[in-house]
Structure formats: C-alpha cells, structure tokens
Design a protein that fits this description.
Layout: E1 5-10, E2 15-24, E3 27-32, E4 39-47, E5 59-62, E6 67-70
Antiparallel strand pairs: 1-2, 2-3, 3-4, 4-5, 5-6
Amino acid sequence: DEDGRWSFRFRKWDSVTKSQFYFKNGKTCYIFKGGVKGQEICIYIYRNPKGTREEKNEYFLTDVFDLYSFSVVD
C-alpha cells in the first residue's frame, strides 16, 4: 500500500503477515510481528529466471528461517 506495507502468506505455517517493508544496506527489511515480536528481519530477494507466476516461483527470498519461492499477486 502507500505506506510500504506488504501482505504475505506463509504456506508453511498457513499464516498471513502484514508488515511495513523498507530497504537497508541492499536488503529488504521488515519488523517481524510473530515469534520474537519486534525483531528486524533483513532479507535478500532474487529473481528466478526459470520461475513462472503459475508455479508461484518468480522470486526467491532467504531469511533466518528458510529459502522461499513466491510470486507477486495484485
């Protein structure tokens, strides 16, 4: 949205998170609202050259938990 908030669903945990994302030192960062609340998580996002929207793997991201594939949904 206009405030920089993104919503994303973790299929692994079947949960939806809405956080404000920002950029810091070449990474995309957000404040994690689950688990350790208030913890800043900074991630790298990579384009998957073989990914497709249908397969929901256009991008990869890594964080302290795992490697995820995803696609953007409007």
